[in-house]
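Pipeline run #58 for the internal structure catalog. This entry was flagged by the ingest filter as a single-chain record with no existing model, so it goes straight to prediction. Upstream metadata was stripped on purpose; only the residue string is passed forward. Reviewer on rotation: M.T. Logging verbosity set to normal.
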Amino acid sequence: MQIHRNFDDLGSIRHPVVTTGSFDGVHIGHKTILNRLRKIADDIGGETVLITFHPHPRKILYPDTAGKSLKLISTQREKVELLKQTGLDHLVIIPFTLEFSRITSHDFVKKILVEKLHAQRIIVGFNHHFGHKRRGDFNYLYELARYHDFEVEEIPEQDVENETVSSTTIRKALHEGRIQRANAYLDHFYIIMGPLKDGYPRCRDVGFPTYAVGIEEDVKLIPPQGVYAISLIWGTLKYKGMLNVKQLEDRQDVSVEVHLFDHDHEAELRGKVVTLQFHKRMREELNLNDTESLHKQLERDKADIEQLIY
């Protein structure tokens, strides 16, 4: 997958098949769109292109309202990694600014999709809007297609267990700690990618050494406090383990710490950027002040997680 940071370094793209959007989480609906892009590109000898934005448009357009409290399923690093796994050919990451937001729907299609990308097919998701004040939609694209020699297609909304999938529904599931439901919506494990640091000394003292997980963007959605069954991936290595999310005393941030089974927690992974896959929330956070109670609870947590098949 080639990554482009502006429209001027695209080079020559064969018969571009294009879609646009934030694609937060790269969920099952997004994958349906990307699979359709791939199918069309293969049929016409073309290449697939996704135009996405950073930061999220709501953060720029509504910084004091809808964007202020918005947490995202994926950081930039995570989204890029998830998109690589889909087989996408070209990812165009556009810095989203107030100036960019003022581009009209017509200019976005004519000056960017047609003149810069030379798009032959444009695929959009259900109820997709674009351009200044979100005035562009599928019907508008369909009208412009007649004048600019491209084809357009709309992908129907996707359902999981009779619920419509969107980034919003996934964020809600994650905020509630419903990891397995979120994973079903995503069609992959919810992940956190970040560097590992030295963990909390108290856990090491009771026989459960941990790594602290660095959260790379403050907009990253962290599930609620509690203990989670996870897998850690680094290169070809994979470890089963448990992860704890704990609210810090100032209540402005959380700590995320992971204990790995069958791993000595020495220098091997310290400083490395790893991928944590979330499987299940096991329990809520408990206030255990004495060492013996903490040790016994962690032993129970480990035993419960080891019984899970994953």
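catalog note: The longest helix spans residues 28-44.
catalog note: The radius of gyration is 22 Å.
status: ready for reviewer M.T.
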